[in-house]
Structure formats: structure tokens, C-alpha cells
């Protein structure tokens, strides 16, 4: 008998521009590709304390949802930062430092050289900056500390004190503004220009397109691990968190380039109050969602689309869904307690959007039919974070995160 107690409301928009026969264009490959990913993978897997994160099979949950398979890529242990973002921000910091040192000396250093302190004098004068909901900023701050440069992070009014303190623990100066995420992005950009700082953002906008490519390439480490862990199997569906579209486009582009017409159906999942990707798909071009962008899924509280991400998602993402807030805590609890024979998993608020959508859609015949979900479906989701805000996690789950 099913013990699934997850409820919530959803909306669905099928992307009319998406088609399995669409070719992955050269312009899209210039953003992300399997070939471009190799340098990032070789680089990051050589960092101190690198370990692949687990891919859990949630067989009991899949059975009771009437699905063939659910794979859950668990990023709660990534480099001790508890988030997949550890891969992108820190890698982009390294790439920026390499470029600056090469510009000054004429020789491009290896990341090992920088880690060994061979360019300490140059690196110590550089200040990296970004705006963040929390996890990207933590990665940038960690990378800056690891490589020896300065770091200034901008956060918006809704970022928790716990996330602020986590960035400060890596030596970053953290500045809180009164506005929302998109306003913090604009302030970080303007102050970087006036103060000579280097922006390492995970979103792209007019005039800022290169660095976010490195951020997204960092994420391919996680995807290449998952492909290896699935051992020749190819998912039929990927349900992936939205946000500005950086992660969703990395997943879409990497799998599209790798598997071509065999690629999974890509379903982008967003909070109801922050669905800029769904609204952009409806409009046929990037549009902004205004307002408070209030959501428990703090990492997805984004109102403006990454232009680079949109280059891939515009005709690569098959479906765009929104989810209501009431599903967040129950899915976190289901994972924390372990569903029947499935493992216990620590998942933060933004980690559960994809899985929550899979559970809800599989239990609703109309949604299941619209998304092609059934007993032959093999679902891949990414648990993008663990308890990155321990107080919030305990409040929603009822138990503290595991040490």
C-alpha cells in the first residue's frame, strides 16, 4: 500500500519549439558541449578532497508512483558545501584567475600552480564578487579562499542568516540589500565595474556572457558522474529545477549533445511565484517575472532568465512546470525518513522540486499522460542541495540534519 503523502498544485506548458529531432546547433555547443566539458572535468576531479556524489535508486518510491525507475543524484555531500553549486562557482573563479595571471605574465598557469601559491602576489590583489541566493555565493567564497583571492558577495533581503554566515565562514565580505535577487545582481555588477572587481555570476545578461559558461561547465562533472553511475541506461525523463536556467540548460545541453535523439524528455520545474522560464516559453522569448518572488525554494527565487541558458532551453526543454509550496516540506520529510526500503537522504528546500513534480504528476492521470509518465519511465532528478540552511531544514523536516 502506498505511503506517499505529498500534495500540491501544478501547472504545465508543453514547449511548441521542442522536438526530439531538433539538431543541437553549433551556437548551442558554444555554450555547453561534451567536448567543452572535458577540461572542467579533468580540472575539478583533481581538486583536493574530490569525491563523486552518490546516485540513489529510489525503487520503492518509483514502484508506488507507477514508474519504472527514479534516480536521485545526491549533491548534499559535494566538497563539504552541501550543493552542486560547489562545482560551478569555484571552477569559474579558477578560470578567471588563470586568465588574469596569463594576461600579466604571458604564461597560463595550471590550477595546481595557483593552489600551490606560485602566483600568490598577483592572486591576493584580485577581488571576486557575485550576487547569490546562497549556494552559488558559498561556492565562489570557498573557491576564493582555496585559491587565495578576495571575495565580496551580495545577498538579497530573503537570504537566511545561516546562508550569510556560511559564506562569511569562507572569509567573504557579505553585503545584504533591501531588494530582491535580480536587484542584487544589478548592484554587484555596477559596483564591480566601479571598484575593479571580477564578477563570477551564474546568470548571464547583456554584456556578460562568458563567465557563466565556465560556471555551467563546472556542473558537467556531476552529469558525467551520473552517466557513468547509470551504467549504460538512459533516462526517459529528466525533471530539473529552473531558477535562472543555468543548471537546466547545462543538463539539457549536455544530455542533448551526448545522446542526440535518444536524449530524455526535459521537464523544467519552477515555483509558482518565480516561473520566469515558463513565462518565457509561453511568450517565445525571455520575459521577467516581477514581484517578491517569495518561495521556500530559495535557490529558485529568480525572476529574470539567463540569456545563455535560454539559448538552449528555448528549443531544448520539452515542458515547463510550476509547483506549489505545500509540496516542499512533505518531499523533504519523505526523503529524510527514507521511503519504505529507499535510503534516507538529506535534501534542502531547492533540492526537491524535480522529485516533487515527478511524484505529483505520476499520481494525476492527466499530468502523467501529458508528460508520458508510466511503468516504463526512467526518471532522473538532481537533489541539488542538502541542509544548506540547517535551521530551515529542521523547521521543515522536524529533525536536525545529520552531522
Net shape: globular
Order of helices and strands: EHHEHEHHHEHEHEHEHEHEHHEHHHEH
Biggest sheet: strands, sense, closure? 7 strands, mixed
Name the helicity range: 40-55%
Distance between the termini: 32 Å
Low-confidence stretches: none
User: Beta fraction of the residues?
Assistant: 5-15%
DSSP helical segment count: 17
| CA-atom Rg in angstroms | 20 Å
- Domain count: 2
CATH-scheme architecture of the largest domain: 3-Layer(aba) Sandwich
- Would you tell me which CATH topology of the largest domain applies? Rossmann fold
- Overall pLDDT, averaged? 95
CATH C-level name of the largest domain: Alpha Beta
Chain oligomer state: single chain
By DSSP, the count of extended strands is 11
Q: Pairing-aware structural class of the strands and helices? A: alpha/beta
Descriptive notes:
With 403 residues, the chain is an alpha/beta fold. The chain folds into two domains: 261 residues, 3-Layer(aba) Sandwich (Rossmann fold); 125 residues, 3-Layer(aba) Sandwich (Rossmann fold), CATH 3.40.50. Helix content is 43%, strand content 14%. The strands form two sheets. It has a seven-stranded mixed beta sheet with strand order 1-10-9-8-11-3-2, sandwiched between helices. Strands 6-5-4-7 form a four-stranded parallel beta sheet, with helices on both faces. Strand 8, helix 11 and strand 9 form a beta-alpha-beta unit. The mean pLDDT is 95.
